[in-house]
Amino acid sequence: MTKIYLPDNDDDLLKECVVYTYRSSGKGGQHVNVTDSAVRLKHLPSGIVVTSQQERSQHKNKRICIEKLREAVKKRNYRKPYRVPTKMPRSVRAKNLEMKSKTSTKKRLRKIHSKDID
């Protein structure tokens, strides 16, 4: 997948986007019902769509959409770092084998004792 690049300037970013305004729903009273304060922003190069209708002002909602768009692009561009598996040291491997043999000896002795009791 290719990396998405955004301009640092918000005005340049808005030139790459299509801005839709519409009437929002929810709290805000008559002001919200009358004005087109909700904003939907579609970034054309990447196809990412973000919306905001939490503020009564269209300008504030546009600012929130720009922040959401930058955050969405940041999430899409993130790649997990390559993890190099570490090798187990020889001394630790030897210690683990020793513990395994001790445990198996214990279990073997338990079997022998349980047969004697029955």
TrEMBL record:
Q: Where is the composition biased (Basic residues)?
A: 103-118
What are the alphabetically sorted keywords of the record? Methylation
Q: What would be an example GO MF term here? A: translation release factor activity
Question: Which Pfam families has this protein been placed in?
Answer: RF-1
- On the tree of life, the source organism's domain of life is Bacteria
Kindly give the InterPro entries that the UniProt entry links to this protein: Pep_chain_release_fac_I, Pep_chain_release_fac_I_sf, Prokaryotic/Mito_RF
Residues of the Prokaryotic-type class I peptide chain release factors domain: 23-39
Which intervals of the chain are annotated as region Disordered?
77-118
Q: Does the record carry Membrane as a key word?
A: no
Q: Does the keyword Transcription regulation apply?
A: no
PANTHER family given for it? Answer: LD18447P (PTHR43804)
Q: Name the protein family.
A: Belongs to the prokaryotic/mitochondrial release factor family.
- Could you tell me what this protein is called? Peptide chain release factor 1
Q: Lineage of this protein's species?
A: Bacteria, Pseudomonadati, Chlamydiota, Chlamydiia, Parachlamydiales
